Amino acid sequence: MERRTVFEGWLLPVLLVLPQLLLTGFFFLWPAGEAIWSSLIRADPFGLGSTFVGLENFSELFSDPLYVDSIIRTVIFCAAVSLLSMSVALLLAVFADRHIAGRAIYRTLLIWPYAVAPAVSAVLWLFILNPQVGLLGRWLNSRGIAWDYTINGGQAMLMVIVASAWKQVSYNFIFFLAGLQSIPRAVVEAARMDGAKGWHRFRTITFPLLSPTTFFLLVVNLVYAAFDTFGTIYALTHGGPGKDTETLVIKVYRDGVVNLDLGSSSAQSVVLMAGVIALTAIQFRFIGRRTSA
Amino acid sequence: MSQAIISAPIEHVVPRQRPDWLAHIVLAIGVLLFALPVWLVFAGSTQDSGAITRGELSLLPSLDLSAYPRVLLHGSMGTEPVWHMLLVSGGMALAIALGKIVISILSAYAVVFFRFPFRHAAFWLIFITLMLPVEVRIIPTYSVMANFGLINSFTGLTVPLIASATATLLFRQVFVAIPDELVEAARMDGAGPLRFLRDILIPVSAANIAALFVILFVYGWNQYLWPLLVATDPGLDTIVIGIVKMIGVETQTDWSSVMATAVLALLPPIVVVVLMQRWFVAGLTEGEK
Question: Of B131, B263, B277, which to mutate for an interface test with A (greatest number of A Cβ within 10 Å)?
Fold first, then answer.
């Protein structure tokens, strides 16, 4: 869409757009370019020079069972977090959309967790699930259920899924509620007249009409689970025990920053970029909506 | 749209029967699910660390709030004092939120209200940054930062996060919808481009700016990976970095201090969201049409 009326001149607009372009160039495009470049070369062991190796870093990456495991783990993690946080949010939104007393208060009380940092939600869940200190973790152990996420990989995965999904529910709730409110009342009323009851009405009328919101949220949640949960996972488990909660982002960080394997880490960065680009393209192609900040 | 979310006009008043108990029960469980972890941490902050270590953490708080002044002034287990971390976090969140808003308004204004060479190219360059979150360019961004000498500086902590495709897209959308008549009237009155921006465009987009401020403040406050990467100097520890450092201590953890710090880390962004809820909810879901 273009405006009909515009102002004259080109120097002023160029100056106005320059700060944004400089930041973009220095901190986005340059590093992205460097990631692509270093994913194609390999430094020799003595750090004296480097050789161009083409796609060798990538073929090595995908033939590395540890990397493939990490991909599978990330997919499971993302699916679980999205499903859990979206279904809880939808349930809450459906009931918050009803005409009940105190619904403004309910809404405020369901919206605030949006503000909780992923890393801080990890701290909150530590006090619930830690086997020595946590309320629930201790209780489980006292009932003879061996609960210790620092040694049991499955339990660790469960914990990071719960902590990550918990924090995302309010975001989904806000969007589901807005979606529900934009469904024309007349449609719902008509269904009611036809005698469609509760669950049946939801399944045949409300949920299909909500599908644009659901699809948009699915993409946003997958991106959230894949990238924004670094803080949650790193604070709780550091990717452990072993590699049991090592998602792709944790692996890039461990390989690059901790183990200083630059070639592999760069190739992993490029793979992740491709992933984000694909998700963003899907989002804009099919729904033309933006994600959060 | 924005009004509808806050207070949906009740067009067809359902005849009031008895209260909708099912809805109240489900929503109350939801509220508890969110509130309980925070309440537990608050309760723990008033309890004795030794007791918590022995596994005696309780949901009942005591009246002992001494952990708060203790962590605020002295930190815990060798960390910076928490007031300093709060200052760094607050400064970082404000710098990022305001910085993003200012440069995004300027660039969206330039793209929408002028015709200049490479206008579309500039817009697309900004747009693709949407696809490059910091998580996917960890190592190369670090090396670029090192080249600029920005490691361990407040500038390094904030400036690279200020570029924003999302905010630019949002303002572009708002500006495109401004009626041509408004622009023509302003020109007739002899307003130059900068006066038009200051006196008309910014006031009419005030609600969008407020909404974006909330979203970006929370985004800035909650950063973890970026400060972990570029600031190893404890003097630049944000509260989020600080709290994770505290739980990383394996032995002799001073739990009540950790929990008091967690409460202090939670409060500021929650207060911003709750106080500005009206604009925030509208702004988040607006432009999704």
Answer: B131
pLDDT reported for residue B14:
52
Subunit contact B24:A100, Cβ cutoff 8 A: yes
What's this model's pTM, rounded to 2 decimal places?
Answer: 0.88
| Residues in Cβ contact with B40 at an 8 Å cutoff, skipping those fewer than 6 apart | A124, A127, A128, A135, B57, B59
Assembly ipTM = 0.87
Helix (H, G, I), strand (E, B) or coil at A53: coil
**For residue A129, which of A156, A167, A166, A153 has the smallest C-alpha distance?**
A156
Is B187 in Cβ contact with A3 (below 8 Å)?
no
pLDDT at residue B277 above 80?
A: yes
> What pLDDT does residue B247 have?
86
User: CA–CA separation, A135 vs B58, rounded Å?
Assistant: 8
Domain spans, chain A: 52-286
B242 compared with A51, residue with greater pLDDT: B242
**Rounded to whole angstroms, how far apart are CA atoms A78 and A171?**
16
**Residue A212 Cα, gap to closest chain B Cα (Å):** 10
- Out of A119-123, A195-199, B104-108, least confident range: A195-199
The domains of chain B are located at 82-285
Contact A81, A221 (CB under 8 A): yes
* Alpha carbon distances (Å) from B85 to A119, B234, B250, B262, B269: 15, 9, 22, 12, 14
What pLDDT is stored for residue B6 in this prediction?
A: 47
What's the N-to-C CA distance of chain A in angstroms? 23
Q: What is the dihedral of CA B129, B132, B134, B135, to 10 degrees?
A: 160
Q: Which residues of chain B lie closer than 8 angstroms to A175, CB-CB? A: 284-285, 288
**Residue in A10, A104, A256 nearest the CB of B117:** A10
CATH number of the structural domain B82-285: 1.10.3720.10
**Token digits of residue A73:** 């783990």
**Inter-chain touch A123–B243, beta carbons under 8 Å:** yes
pLDDT greater than 50 at residue A292? no
Share of chain B above pLDDT 90, in %: 34
Separation of alpha carbons B226 and A291, rounded Å: 20
CATH 1.10.3720.10 fits A52-286, yes or no: yes
Angle B50-B53-B57 from CA coordinates, rounded to 5°: 95
Nearest CB among B106, B187, B270 relative to A112 is that of B270
Nearest CA in chain A to B286: A178
